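Support request, please re-run this one:
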Amino acid sequence: MIQLAHPIIEEDEKRAVIDALESGQLAQGPRVAAFEQAFAAYVGVKHAVAVANGTAALHLALLAHNIGGASDQQPTANNQQPDEVVVPAFSFAASANAVLLAGARPVFVDVRDDDFNIDVSAIEAAITPRTRAIIAVHLYGQMCDIDTVAAICARRGLALIEDAAQAVGASARGTRAGASGTGCFSFYATKNLTTGEGGMITTNDDAVAARARVLRSQGEPSRYVTEELGYNYRMTEIAAALGHTQLPKLDARNDVRRANAARLSALLASNDKIVTPHELPALRHVWHQYTIRVTAGRDARDRLQASLGERGIESATFYPTPIHRQPLYQRLGYGDAELPVAQRLAGEVLSLPVHPALSAADVEAIAAAVNEVSLRM
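Re-run finished. Output below.
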């Protein structure tokens, strides 16, 4: 089976985890601090705050910007008319769920089919007097039009939250993902850099970093002094040891992903039944996912996926339902929203293996299978 994802864990990474286990300190400690320092330097920001996962990063980033409201607060007029946050509808549900967790309301906008990212031309129409932030998702490993989003945020006085869960190492015109606003990263098992579970907040704002650090640890600025309602969102020493040891290898591993993606695109170029993804100018795509579009629609896409599975090639649909059409959001009253590109993409996209553990023969086999099956549709 050619797996969709295959995390690479080398001997030095295993040794770092064993050293953490043998140290006797397993909860947040010096390894977490060292990982934070190295990650901040890598992204090019003043602060990095390690947390338990990517959703925790998004949740705390919003709260650190004073968006929404904590559950220890009494209801106010503002709670009855909640803060709003603009979110692209085509993403993992956590991009919007974190807004609900913060006590705010997601406002969904459509995406573009050339890069699957937020349609910046749709943002202004979604902004109301209650809008407090824009979550700019960098889907599949390619940054969105972050300069335009940042300009809108600056002009409107909004917080810019970068959902870089799938884009660690990506850049736009030399600026890393997570350096233009408040960055939120995931180190889930399948990510380009993995700690099994884990996340990171990046920022140049001293106050945002300080509040995120307090909120991740029970709202305690010092031990056993609870200033506000916080959370147990700490990262373990074990996770930090793994992530810190992987970080110097990240760019090289992303380069392999880039090479695999380029080879897949070359081998699939003549296939008129699919649209291959591409890297937009001045961007560095890190190919967390290599996602094709099957233009004949959902049934053809699903048949292709099933046929690839029969040939021993794993693939996946990220994501079969836009967030605004998920059952939770239907119950919350989003059912009438029409976001045509997001809705169409949900029936077309299929992600193929692109990870750095693939051999050249694997890449050839993936492309050959896609061409063989799809050209007969």
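The CA atoms of residues 193 and 247 lie 7 Å apart. The mean pLDDT is 96.
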